[in-house]
Specification:
Blueprint lengths: L1 H31 L5 H28 L7 H7 L4 H15 L12
């Protein structure tokens, strides 16, 4: 029974992702004056889903390696280390979140 509940949840999440990707694609195609087929939206959704699965597995592994059951900010920063643009955006967000002169425990070196 738990497997079917997990599968149902996964299908609901995938449907929500499909809807969100579709809305974003619609907005962007209107701005650009181009069309996107339903097949394109479906393929893009599958690609985003695969990326989400990969990132979630990496984050879980980082947390487990650190002896934690919960993903921390340090895990996300470790994941972003190979994407300089993302790392910059995340560092800026953290700096804004912390405010001037504050350093929160557990955020590690950046």
């Amino acid at each position: 029974m738990a497997a079917t509940e997990d599968e149902a949840l996964q299908e609901r999440l995938k449907s929500a992702l499909w809807y969100s990707v579709g809305k974003i694609v619609d907005e962007e195609t209107l701005k650009l004056g181009v069309n996107a087929t339903p097949q394109f939206i479906g393929a893009l959704t599958e690609m985003v889903w695969a990326q989400i699965e990969s990132v979630s597995q990496d984050l879980e592994s980082f947390a487990k390696h650190a002896g934690r059951k919960t993903v921390a900010v340090d895990d996300v920063m470790l994941l972003s280390r190979r994407n300089e643009g993302l790392e910059t955006v995340l560092n800026t967000f953290l700096d804004d979140l912390q405010g001037p002169g504050k350093k929160e425990k557990g955020l590690g070196k950046r």
